[in-house]
Amino acid sequence: MSQIMLCDKLCSVEDCIPGTGVYLRHGYIYSSLAGYVLRKNEGEELPVISVVRETETQLLPDVGAIVTCKVTSINPRFAKVHILYVGSTPLKDRFRGTIRKEDVRATEKDKVETYKSFRPGDIVLAKVISLGDVQSNYLLTTAENELGVVVAHSEAGAQMVPISWCEMQCPRTHTKEFRKVARVQPEYLQA
Amino acid sequence: MPTDTKRVRGPEVSQSPSLFLPDGRQRDQVDVRPVFVRCGLVSQAKGSAYIEAGNTKLMCCVYGPKETERKDETDMKCGRLTTDMRFAPFSCPERGSWIQGSQDKDFSLMLQESLQPAVCLHKYPRSQIEVNVMVLENSGSVLAHAVTCASLALADAGIEMYDLVLGCSIRQDGASYVVDPTYTEQNSCSSVSSENQGGLTVAFLPSLNQISGLQSDGEMTEETLTAGVRTCIEGCYKLYPVVQQALTKAVRRAALPPPES
Amino acid sequence: MIGSVCVTQSPVSPSFLLHFRTAEPLEYHRSFLKENCRPDGRELSEFRTTTLNIGSISTADGSALVKVGNTTVICGIKAELANPTVEAPGKGYIVPNVDLPPLCSSRFRPGPPGEQAQAASQFIADVIESSEVIQTEDLCIERGKLCWVLYCDMMCLDYDGNVLDACVVALLAALKNTQLPEVTVNTETCTPGVTLEKRHGLRINKHPVATSFCIFDDSILIVDPTAEEESLATAQLTVVTDEEDRLYSLHKPGGTSLSGQKLQECISRATARQREIQKLINKVIHSVKTAQ
């Protein structure tokens, strides 16, 4: 595995497909990071060439990315969150996101009540649907089975156990609270 | 050339010993001071670099990409690069004030303009990258070294760039010049003629062979200026291996090579 | 914990710990404190490695760079001449300032000093005044006419908690490193004459050293907190003592209460720390002298 400097010429565009950490100039692929070269054959004719620094560097939330966030406030129209992770990469700086009422779940959108879906402090898995515009933050959705609340604390302060896709139970007081619960896939936890 | 026969003549060219006083440096040669460069010293920053050239010492920290504070339409497509360059109050022979002077602001702006063309800002929509430079000791050529230091810190932070940016200054003093001048060399003038007196700082992208920033003051003829720019570029190339070595070390420290797939 | 949602999560992977740390930092720290240790492997009363470098800035009359773990503070001292005040004609000035520039952490914004920097400057000024590290009378050159002003600028270059302790060490070491040129006042013309070649050091009377603590969950006491620990703690406390175990300052800006017994523990830890630091400063100054 060879180490590469910034702006090193890697190869011609005829030999490889540009991946991440590279840029094109005059028909050649150059590195835009100082790091290691990674060539991957993904069944295509040409291998994908990337330059990587750490094992995984996805720096900013992008459309389609799965993010882990913490709910900071809710109101009847939307929930405000802080994005903590993109995939399994922690963000050094916090980015703000919004989950609108209509993006909470896929079915019966008109019956969604935000405070029956999230509470401040909940840890939520969500997907980025838009980078937003000048006024708004990143727009996120939880309208998939795998997305929604993964960690929540009850009013008694104990961590709750999910009992269905829309309810969680406090192990101490056995009271049930409403949430949009995620069906967590193990790979998100271990990645 | 008419020869003066009425006087006792010495050699054709001679130089005052005072020119060689500070650290025995040569005039009219691309003689940059020895540099020491190191990456990744500051734990809190995304990327950082420290540079020492002679007695000039400065450090740079890069934070972000983080959410933009003020948003406008252009921020939606590409990121924003902000720079802040400051002098520690004890960094100059005269004590500086805590309040940022116009010189600091000028330097910050020039730094920003020199770095911006090298950063792939379109990869960072809606976010800003902050570059903070602190001059700990000012012994001349501060802007040039700030440019080098900042680009190294950006690379250390893993910010995507087209190329590194290297800086080099010269001080033109009549017919002769000094590369990478010290504080005293920068502010002294030994020749009597008022022609061709000035300073020049060039920010240069070494792999792309492009100039991203050029700042000059004083008065210089066109030929002197173009020759000066060429000299600065030569000076940048002298820095290049040292800077590359520091970056190689930083990459190796950040992560081991990924497994062969 | 994120993991409890998942049914079978037996081996805890390192990245899982990382997730836990970002999502639930307080719980994460508690899980360590329960075992009487801290996330960085330290014991509760253990300081981070402290290193000192003096005289590295040649444009300053005295300077020192201190590292306490990651936290880095540089102190530069510039001496200038001024007229003494009418109220204290036989005294000079010491002007300490702490700067927390945006360079040292993303929590600080550019612009005038924030609350924390102002509080730190005032704290340092109080320590100087109460401990009389330097007698301001020593800074007087000609009574009522001329005296020294010592501008002591402490600048944080890397903020990872416990900046006060680092500032005090940097200040003390820089003062010990300071060499002032000889100044004589011409009696006829009343103008000062400076001899740069003849320099002399300052007389350091006391060696005050600060030791900071954090209180976690109203009861657990930890020394030398990191930035993360500081932000999660319920109270903070700084004790300043000198070589004769005199107590100069006990700074506890609000927060949860502390028992008298715990306070005694803090003070005895602080006196031990004072010895360590004074030894370090003397060692570094000695090594610099022998190197010359």
Automatic annotation (TrEMBL), chain A:
GO biological process, one term: rRNA processing
Keywords, alphabetical: Cytoplasm, Exosome, Nucleus, Phosphoprotein, RNA-binding, rRNA processing
UniProt KW RNA-binding keyword: yes
Superkingdom field: Eukaryota
Gene Ontology molecular function, alphabetical: RNA binding
Residue stretches making up the S1 motif domain: 62-143
Keyword Nucleus belongs to the record: yes
Pfam family, one: EXOSC1
SMART domains xref list: S1
Compartmental location: Cytoplasm; Nucleus, Nucleolus
One Gene Ontology CC term in the entry: nuclear exosome (RNase complex)
Subunit structure: Component of the RNA exosome core complex (Exo-9), composed of EXOSC1, EXOSC2, EXOSC3, EXOSC4, EXOSC5, EXOSC6, EXOSC7, EXOSC8 and EXOSC9; within the complex interacts with EXOSC6. The catalytically inactive RNA exosome core complex (Exo-9) associates with the catalytic subunit EXOSC10/RRP6. Exo-9 may associate with DIS3 to form the nucleolar exosome complex, or DIS3L to form the cytoplasmic exosome complex. Exo-9 is formed by a hexameric base ring consisting of the heterodimers EXOSC4-EXOSC9, EXOSC5-EXOSC8 and EXOSC6-EXOSC7, and a cap ring consisting of EXOSC1, EXOSC2 and EXOSC3.
Protein family per UniProt: Belongs to the CSL4 family.
Protein name: Exosome complex component CSL4
Native source organism of the sequence: Lates calcarifer (Barramundi)
From TrEMBL, chain B:
UniProt region (Disordered), positions on chain: 1-24
GO-annotated molecular function: RNA binding
Gene Ontology CC: cytoplasmic exosome (RNase complex); nuclear exosome (RNase complex); nucleolus
InterPro entries: ExoRNase_PH_dom1, ExoRNase_PH_dom2_sf, PNPase/RNase_PH_dom_sf, Ribosomal_Su5_D2-typ_SF, RNase_PH
One family name in Pfam for this protein: RNase_PH
Domain Exoribonuclease phosphorolytic: 32-160
Record bears the keyword Heme: no
Main location class: cytoplasm
Entries under CDD domains matching the protein: RNase_PH_MTR3
Alphabetical list of SUPFAM superfamilies matching this protein: Ribonuclease PH domain 2-like (SSF55666), Ribosomal protein S5 domain 2-like (SSF54211)
Subcellular location: Cytoplasm; Nucleus, Nucleolus
Superkingdom, taxonomy of origin: Eukaryota
Keyword list, A-Z: Cytoplasm, Exosome, Nucleus, RNA-binding, rRNA processing
One GO BP annotation of this record: rRNA processing
Keyword Membrane found: no
Gene3D superfamilies named in the record: GHMP Kinase, N-terminal domain
Protein's job: Non-catalytic component of the RNA exosome complex which has 3'->5' exoribonuclease activity and participates in a multitude of cellular RNA processing and degradation events.
Family: Belongs to the RNase PH family.
Complex formation: Component of the RNA exosome complex.
Protein name: Exosome complex component MTR3
Origin species: Lates calcarifer (Barramundi)
Lineage: Eukaryota, Metazoa, Chordata, Craniata, Vertebrata
From TrEMBL, chain C:
Pfam families reported in the protein's UniProt record: RNase_PH, RNase_PH_C
Residue span, Exoribonuclease phosphorolytic domain: 46-181, 208-271
Domain of life: Eukaryota
Keywords, in A-Z order: Acetylation, Cytoplasm, Exosome, Nucleus, RNA-binding, rRNA processing
Tagged with keyword Signal: no
Keyword rRNA processing in record: yes
GO molecular function: mRNA 3'-UTR AU-rich region binding
Gene Ontology CC annotations of this record: cytoplasmic exosome (RNase complex); nuclear exosome (RNase complex); nucleolus
Record's subcellular location: Cytoplasm; Nucleus, Nucleolus
UniProt record, GO biological process: exonucleolytic trimming to generate mature 3'-end of 5.8S rRNA from tricistronic rRNA transcript (SSU-rRNA, 5.8S rRNA, LSU-rRNA); nuclear mRNA surveillance; nuclear polyadenylation-dependent rRNA catabolic process; rRNA catabolic process; TRAMP-dependent tRNA surveillance pathway; U1 snRNA 3'-end processing; U4 snRNA 3'-end processing; U5 snRNA 3'-end processing
PANTHER family for the chain: EXOSOME COMPLEX COMPONENT RRP43, EXOSOME COMPLEX EXONUCLEASE RIBOSOMAL RNA PROCESSING PROTEIN
Family stated for the protein in its record: Belongs to the RNase PH family.
UniProt-recorded name of the protein: Exosome complex component RRP43
Lineage, opening ranks: Eukaryota, Metazoa, Chordata, Craniata, Vertebrata
Gene symbol of the encoding locus: EXOSC8
